[in-house]
């Protein structure tokens, strides 16, 4: 029963005053009103305005609800029970759960439950967008089916988890006043619980376009004396220094003042907190950190990881002092391979804490209290799904990542708050930290397209941006003193000021300062922090080998020769020093798994088609063999590997006809599959030092035709690009190296290029006449002859390791140290050559 919404003009009355005036005019009783507003932080401002308006003569109406609380489950214990049940279901589904890690399953369950909760809210509406989305998306159809089944199967449980009206009286309110900032959840909630109660909506301003900023410029800078200041720092370090200095200036002026820091840039905020701490000023951080970032969470995570790896706890320390537990003996329950319910796991660890007095220590800390509360909730979970140690660790990590944590032991008048928490509130002094355009851009919803997400009550990227812009607008309009801090660059890259603030800067221009970069009406640059940033070219790093052969490895992989041909500095850092490990050991990258998958599929297909009786001249036979082998290889992968390589599986299905055609063509030409993944090794004697260096490698594929041999390498690159590269055959050293190591100077060298637009064999050109005149018989001999002399100079320290800026820098893991990206050669666009099959 929503009445005609009232659009509020922020330049006139405040939303609260407008609502109070409307109530008086409507003759509604103040005690019979339900107030609905955006965020919990708004309530204190609302109560103060209520008391001021009524001069303390009218008690506040029966209850208040906030949109941010309405979008959360009412109780975490039953929510955990549903999540545990759903994880048990998802891990049995091949499509949805088959490619997910343990922690991803818990995250997936969380997302599905949130969707199901929204479906319970919108059950009285026609959910057409979700149905249309499911019909046109095969993968989403199964997701939607899971969500719909959840909403139906757990309707009673989910309905019980919807936040209930906090009604202290026995009757419904006679009027509902809703301060609407664009969120749809309050409307859905009111339809469900108060379908027949009149709702008066006060539309909070949705600020879009330049016109509101023109009005703000006139109102704020011509009619109100309190200043709004813009400071632009050259970099993030100076930005944090300026923020700390502004706060210290305000405290020196009025030591008892309250200062709000509206945080959009977390990095600058952390640096500012450290600078203020050095000056003896603490900051009350109310932006909310994830529980997973607390020391207690790290301590408990370490315990669970130790248990999952060892099957017991053998090394336990106090959570805060780090001191080992006295007289501690290894502790475990059950066997490491066994599964237990969530309640059993939580009970065991709770009893372990109690036995060793760890619960008493944890009670003294806010994060410790949250950990004990989480274990207490898990102990009461009735779900019968059982989990092993790794899965319980994933459950804890998912919980810790989803919970907010704020230390409560800091009492300070300097408070950091999210920008959205400042709406409908007035501050005496406020610092806005981070005003770049990127700070106001929001990512789209994870599982759903924007239209579907909006129908289910999720804010889309556009609404989220408008909400932030509107909150900033009201902050500038209503607060007494505001300082906006913007960093012109972050991590060495330019950051554009929010366009709306650029509009405001244009409004504030006067005829005499049109040529200035910023309007002096509001722009201020602190004198001691004036830092002129001049662009300087970044020179590539130069190194040389360590003395006494300290850089010479025992062996070099043939694949490392690609680095050698591309960039000598990269080769030295990765294969000689060597460059430190860049990823966790055992965690394979997508590119590695993609290669393993294709090599294995092609090898198994070749073996299958070489059997007697196979129709090697029929394309359908080759296609079916490839599809069958791909499915077989996929079936043997672990869950984590499946999730990583899944995008390529879909791509490979698309190019199977082309691959089949090229393999059949190879067979028709008389080539017979001889072997794959063959290990080869050869000693390379460096000249003139005589030092021996082992070359090791693994040949992708070998084919034979009579006495002839063909050596092949699979490349995820457009064959057209491969042909261009072979204009200089030694720039592609792998195949020539294998030719020399196998002592087959007449062997044919071929690439099999796999790309979304083309699949083809690409052969090396014949040896040039120039090299034949020098006595060489193959590209392999030319390569090893050159390597023996060049590597000797390289490892002896006689040659400087220099970067070779160009295509070699694309995706190079050493580039962050080398830093030659300012060179124009690196900005050439090579897109379309590589196999961008994702």
UniProtKB/TrEMBL annotation:
Pfam families: PDDEXK_1 (PF12705). Residues 558-819 form the PD-(D/E)XK endonuclease-like domain. SUPFAM superfamilies: P-loop containing nucleoside triphosphate hydrolases. InterPro entries: P-loop_NTPase, PDDEXK-like_dom_sf, PDDEXK_AddAB-type. It comes from the Bacteria. This is PD-(D/E)XK nuclease family protein. It comes from Limnobacter parvus.
